[in-house]
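Practice set, problem 2.
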Amino acid sequence: QVQLVETGGGLVQPGDSLRLSCAAAGRTFSTYAVGWFRQAPGKEREFVATISWSGMNTYYVDSVKGRFTISRDNAKNAVYLQLNTLKPEDTAVYCCAAKRTFPSERYYYREADYGYWGQGTQVTVSS
């Protein structure tokens, strides 16, 4: 069982930055692909970014390319999402999800592919 906990959310102004963290407890994270998803009020949850187990491969939704960066530190059992140049439309609850994939370097962007989910952290972008 993998337990995921997200931290780092908050209230920021447009143009600001945040770094979200997804920490794993209960099992090593290093063999899992991880995805970040977000859900805005009144909207369906959407894919944001994903990273393969080693960090070799990453993939982003078009709306965040060039602004968000996903990375991981397997020694610390953590995955990060750096959010730069935030916009009001980035306001949402951000959740991380994990899927054991080792040794494949595939990444996944469908919710149904992931078996483990965190509770999420709120990101609010407002002036």
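Problem 2, part (b): a different protein.
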Amino acid sequence: QVQLVESGGGLVQAGGSLRLSCLVSGGTVSNSAMAWIRQAPGKERDFVAAISWSAGNTFYADSVKGRFTISGDNAKNTVYLQMNSLKPEDTAVYYCAASRRYYSGNYYSPTDYAYWGQGTQVTVSS
């Protein structure tokens, strides 16, 4: 069973940066999709970014393109989300998620992901 543990959230001023980490354990995520998905208070979960673990292709929501970067480190079994130029509207709980192996979806739907971390809070003050 794949287990995901996020870290790196916190409070930052608008314009600042944070890097989130997601440590993968308990199983392999080769040929899987790894994603960051966020949920603001009172809202549904929204796709932020994804990476195909084996091919390294990346996908971003329009709202974060040019500001956020997703990357993976196979040796460390870790997925990262570098967040720059943060805005108050980026405030949310950020979840790391993984698909089942041999994923063939479009990466953008939160319901495509079978494994989820506990989430880490990101708060951006204005």
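Answer key, part (b): The chain has a mean pLDDT of 95. The two ends are 40 Å apart (CA to CA).
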